[in-house]
Amino acid sequence: MTAQPRPYITEEAYLEQERRSTTKSEYYDGQMYAMTGAKEPHNLIASNVLASLHRQLRRKPCRAYPSDMRVKVLRTGLHTYPDVVVCGQPEFVDEKRDALTNPTIIACTLSRMFT
In the chain, what are the domains? Predict the structure, then answer.
């Protein structure tokens, strides 16, 4: 038995589907990858990082976003959801303003430590 090739999904189709979905998926090279939920230790670390950065960025021209802010890596086309994202003047993929293209800091918690 051979594996069936998965159909190529355009970035536009991914964004349309992702914006309607109640779950998150990452996108890379024409494929969507479902994301799993995080456990308590992962969420505590990510929220502590976000809170610390938020305090430090008050009254500065930077913004800190939680894990629901999608990031598009322009060089590779990857769409992903880091745990925390920081940027100055935000630039987005389109007028929907739900996918940043210019993060200056990306923080990701390594969940393998908690399994």
Answer: 25-114 (3.90.1570.10)
Contact 79, 35 (CB under 8 A): no
The encoded tokens of residue 60 equal 């500065």
pLDDT in tens, 54-101: 999 998 999 999 999 999 999 999 999 999 999 889 999 999 999 999
Can you tell me the distance from the alpha carbon of 74 to that of 94, in angstroms, rounded to the nearest whole number?
13
Contact yes or no for 71/79 (Cβ under 8 A): yes
In 3D space, the residue among 59, 73, 69, 63 whose CA is nearest the CA of residue 24 turns out to be: 69
CB 104, CB 62: distance < 8 Å? yes
